[in-house]
Amino acid sequence: MNWLSHPYRAELGRSAMSDEERHVRDMLELVLFTAPGERVHRPDFGCGLNQLVFLGNSPELALTVEMTVRAAVQRWLGDVLSVEALAVAAEDAVLRIDLDYRLRASGEAGSTSFTRSIS
Question: So what's the architecture of 20-117 in CATH?
Answer without folding.
Answer: Roll (3.10)
